[in-house]
Specification:
Elements (H helix, E strand, L loop, with lengths): L8 E5 L4 H12 L3 E5 L13 H12 L3 E5 L6 H15 L4 E4 L14 H29 L2 E6 L2 H4 L6 H21 L4 E9 L13 H11 L7 H8 L10 E5 L2 E4 L17 H12 L9 H4 L6
Parallel strand pairs: 1-2, 1-4, 2-3, 4-5, 5-6, 6-7
Antiparallel strand pairs: 7-8
Helix pairs in contact: 1-2, 1-8, 3-4, 4-6
Length: 304
């Protein structure tokens, strides 16, 4: 057991399995007191019980750590406040939030319903906002705190059939940067992790063609627990100068992602017309256009 986050109080949403479970266990093993939040529902949103969260709490306690289960939803302001209140009631403070809770409603865009789009944004983007907002005033008052948000290369790069998920995950990147900017004066940090890992969510990926089966086989090699060390570090005081960044974890590899910046510029002294845009501006910039690629096209090498 290390002391990287000794005596810190950490909320981990979606802690009942997969990546969230790995992070909750690692936080506790590194000395944190953990609120294991999980609604206990399936990927389709059905069901719900304390079982998944409580099982992780039992694991932590059996190993000598401190943890409590919570089943409030991240998708509403009132219930998100209850998650933070659970930390305060049981441990007296809150030091870090890991926004990991998620769902999937994969569908090709031209077939996606408004409900399917909204359900994913409600949990991923709005859920990240609600829980972060519930913790923000406590972080401000104590002049310190850390947010760790889960984004995805599906948003950062692209993927098929995930317009809702991609939009939510890119929204989280912007939210994280704004939190970092707005709350830096209070020593509050905010960073993102894009995880590659085999989990309950990725297990829903269809695998019918040989290419799809090969992709899934690679994902299955990427253990969910591999995400945890970076999350623990980002929640710790050792990361006091790290904020507003986007990281990616893929098996034993940690990447730092670029962020949008101008890469090419053209000017016209007399101003632009639609015709001159077509004749001059676009040809000048075309060589710098990004291809339409998926995450697996860009990050194509095998994990270690």
């Amino acid at each position: 057991m290390s002391d990287m986050v000794k005596d810190k109080v950490v909320i981990v949403t979606g802690a009942g399995g997969g990546i969230g479970r790995g992070i909750a266990l690692a936080m506790a093993a590194s000395g944190a007191k953990v609120v294991c939040n999980d609604l206990g529902v399936g990927l389709d949103g059905k069901g719900g019980d304390v079982g998944p969260a409580q099982r992780v709490v039992d694991e932590i306690r059996a190993a000598g750590g401190q943890a409590v289960a919570n089943t409030d939803s991240v998708a509403g302001a009132a219930s998100a406040n209850q998650i933070v209140q659970c930390a305060l009631d049981n441990f007296g403070r809150i030091d870090a939030v890991v926004n990991n809770a998620g769902n999937l409603r994969d569908r090709m865009f031209h077939k996606m319903s408004e409900e399917e789009f909204g359900q994913v944004l409600e949990v991923h983007l709005f859920g990240t906002f609600h829980v972060s907002r519930a913790a923000a005033n406590h972080f401000r008052d104590q002049e310190g705190g850390a947010f760790v948000h889960m984004t995805s290369t599906s948003g950062l790069i692209g993927n098929f059939g995930q317009a809702n998920y991609s939009a939510a995950k890119m929204g989280i990147v912007g939210l994280s940067k704004s939190i970092a900017l707005d709350m830096g004066r209070y020593n509050v940090r905010s960073n993102c992790i894009a995880p590659f890992a085999w989990s309950r969510m990725t297990s829903s990926i269809p695998a019918e063609t040989p290419e799809e089966k090969a992709r899934v086989a690679k994902l299955q090699k990427m253990e969910a627990g591999k995400i945890a060390p970076l999350a623990v570090y980002l929640a710790s005081d050792a990361a006091s100068e790290v904020s507003g960044q986007i990281f990616c974890v893929r098996a034993n590899e940690i990447m730092l992602f670029s962020q949008p910046r101008p890469i090419r510029s053209v000017q016209m002294s007399e101003g632009w017309t639609p015709e001159s845009v077509a004749e001059i501006a676009m040809p000048a910039m075309k060589s710098s256009f990004y291809k339409l690629e998926r995450s697996s096209d860009v990050i194509s090498w095998d994990p270690i």
